[in-house]
Write a structure and sequence with these properties.
Blueprint (H helix, E strand, L loop, with lengths): L9 E5 L8 H9 L4 E2 L13 E5 L6 H12 L3 E5 L11 E4 L5 E4 L5 E4 L5 E3 L3 E5 L5 E8 L2 E6 L3 H10 L40 E2 L3 H19 L4 E4 L9 E8 L4 H14 L3 E5 L6 H9 L3 E6 L9 H15 L6 E4 L9 H9 L3 E2 L10 E2 L21 E2 L4 E2 L10 H10 L3 E7 L6 H16 L3 E2 L2 H13 L1 E6 L3 E7 L4 E9 L4 E4 L2 E2 L3 E5 L2 E10 L5 E6 L8
Parallel strand pairs: 1-2, 1-3, 3-4, 4-11, 12-19, 14-15, 14-22, 14-23, 15-16, 16-17, 17-18, 18-20, 21-22
Antiparallel strand pairs: 5-8, 6-7, 9-10, 10-11, 13-26, 24-25, 25-31, 26-30, 27-28, 27-31, 29-30
Helix pairs in contact: 1-3, 3-4, 5-10, 7-8
């Protein structure tokens, strides 16, 4: 029998020769799923794992293919994505047809978009979703005691192309309806949009996080397979205290009216919403920065440049150091270029990484026609280079710019619902000179009120980074047996409000030997048990599950 441990174990093999395949690892890490990288299937490498993921455009050697088939027949659970990996027959599929872009209806009948992948002709596989011309996109197939599943879209390529967009070295052409003018002589992040203005918007708004929807469908299929293992699966939730979504406000400060700062704080305090103030030179007086700290707000850098020739690491470093000294802050970790400016593909991330910046708030649109999920995502992510390495800088894209003025107020409700449904991050970008405009402040109040009603977690951008890094660097040790399973966790930093999702233990959950209150939690098409806990730095905690034999199935 595959996977001899007490917990569901997931292994993944990511195609090394595929420049987009490494983005699969980013998707798994952000989802909070523990997994192990496998470069070979030799010497019984597959035996400890219940679920195996093959990711991207890859192939297997004959010995690895034979080892895989043997493991499958003994009860292994396989999910192949991005290409057939040469095992179409084991997937119950015939010919797989590579396509640069295709659409399909997911298992919940909602629309999905994929950039790259290989829809297939189904033979003996059960088709779960398909293209309009009948090609299998998601399928499952029984093989011996095991199950092989297929997810045709190339998740890594889709995420990379949508979220990173194109490199910006010249202006782009905007939509034909005139709702956004991109050919304006100013290079911005919005010039790199990869989505289509005609087919991927709803009216003048990118209303759907297309990359997030596709990633979610892939994770859901992983969870389906994990359920078949009849073992519990642990997942670390995106947001503190089990919140369905997160929200942040960042304010570009090119004007420095201290009275307006105090006025907006009174509004923000109503909702418990801290702010990331992105400050350009010359900046505020020192007393204002002290106020920010007393309010638990964050100071970040608004990187200014006269023209595209000023896009240099030396200039960024100079402004970053100057603001650190002026604000008396030891480390500024958040930054954005003024006016949504952008140049190149990975340039800003590399510059920021060298300077010590760890959060980019750069990806977003500043005109009505590029509002919303311009880059296909409402989640923070660590950009992946084409050589497979990841940046140390977390991108927190903004989806709402100047609510009520640029982003239409009549779309607030539906957009917040889209954020909640994708468990995403509503990042609102504002400007300090709009703080004196009553209609803009009223619109911001209305949007924050909607988030507050839904109990969204309000976070500074530095908080988003700290929580994301803590989840990813957490040490997890799995043990126990079928009747009593243990999960020990340790962190190098304090982590408050961590949510451990368990699929689905049944029986009793204990934390450090004491019964703990756990709550049902729906996510990724399954019903989980949510266990909230706080971790102290360097201190081990233990969760223990007492699983009844007749309730072990998820």
């Amino acid at each position: 029998m595959a996977g001899g441990g007490a917990w569901c174990s997931i292994g993944a093999r990511i195609a090394k020769s595929d420049p987009y395949a490494a983005a699969y690892a980013e998707v798994l890490d952000h989802a909070g799923i523990p997994w192990t990288s496998l470069d070979t299937f030799a010497a019984g490498a597959l035996k400890p794992h219940d679920v195996l993921l093959l990711c991207g455009r890859g192939s297997l050697s004959d010995p690895d293919r034979q080892a895989l088939e043997s493991w499958l027949k003994e009860g292994g659970l396989l999910l192949v994505s991005g290409s057939s990996w040469g095992v179409a027959e084991s997937l119950g599929l015939g010919e797989c047809l590579r396509r640069p872009r295709f659409e399909f209806e997911s298992q919940d009948s909602s629309r999905r978009i994929a950039f790259g992948g290989e829809p297939a002709i189904a033979k003996s596989a059960k088709v779960l979703s398909q293209t309009s011309d009948g090609l299998a996109v998601q399928s499952m197939h029984a093989l011996g005691k095991g199950v092989s599943a297929y997810f045709a879209p190339h998740v890594g390529q889709t995420a990379a192309l949508m979220q990173m967009g194109r490199g910006v070295d010249t202006d782009a052409l905007g939509p034909m309806d005139g709702s956004a003018i991109l050919d304006d002589g100013r290079l911005r992040a919005e010039d790199g949009v990869f989505l289509d203005f005609e087919t991927d918007r709803a009216g003048e708004l990118f209303a759907e996080p297309w990359a997030d929807r596709l990633k979610e469908s892939w994770i859901e299929q992983i969870v389906q397979l994990a359920t078949l293992s009849r073992k519990p699966l642990a997942l670390l939730w995106h947001w503190p205290n089990g919140a369905r979504a997160g929200a942040s406000v960042s304010i570009d400060c090119e004007t420095f009216d201290v009275d307006q700062v105090s006025n907006i704080q009174r509004l923000l305090r109503m909702f418990g919403c801290p702010v990331t103030w992105l400050v350009a030179q010359p900046g505020f007086p020192l007393d204002t920065y002290r106020l920010f700290r007393s309010w638990d707000h964050e100071v970040g850098l608004l990187f200014t440049l006269d023209d595209d020739s000023g896009w240099t690491e030396e200039r960024l470093k100079s402004q970053h150091l100057s603001l650190e000294r002026a604000a008396s802050v030891p480390q500024l970790i958040s930054a954005r270029a003024v006016d949504g400016r952008w140049k190149g593909y990975f340039d800003f991330y590399e510059m920021a990484e060298h300077v010590g910046i760890r959060v980019s708030a750069s990806k977003g649109g500043r005109q009505r026609g590029v509002s919303g999920f311009l880059f296909g995502t409402g989640h923070p992510f660590f950009p992946t280079k084409l050589d497979g390495t990841r940046s140390k800088v977390l991108e927190c894209p903004y989806s709402v710019y100047l609510p009520g003025e640029v982003f239409p107020e009549e779309r607030f409700g539906a957009f917040v619902e889209a954020i909640l449904n994708s468990h995403g991050h509503l990042h609102i970008a504002f400007k300090s000179d709009a703080l004196s405009q009553h209609h803009a402040v009223d619109a911001l109040r209305n949007l924050l009120s909607l988030c507050h009603q839904q109990r969204v977690a309000f976070l500074k951008l530095s908080d988003v980074y700290a929580f994301e890094r803590a989840r990813r660097t957490l040490k997890m040790y799995f043990g126990g047996n079928e009747e009593s399973r243990s999960l020990r966790l340790a962190s190098d930093t304090d982590v408050r409000g961590l949510g451990v999702l368990l699929l689905s233990p049944g029986g009793q959950v204990e934390l450090n030997g004491k019964a703990v209150r756990s709550l049902p939690f729906p996510a990724y098409g399954a019903q989980w048990t949510h266990v909230p806990l706080d971790l102290e730095s360097k201190r081990l905690v233990e969760l223990r599950l007492s699983v009844e034999r007749d309730s072990r199935a998820a």
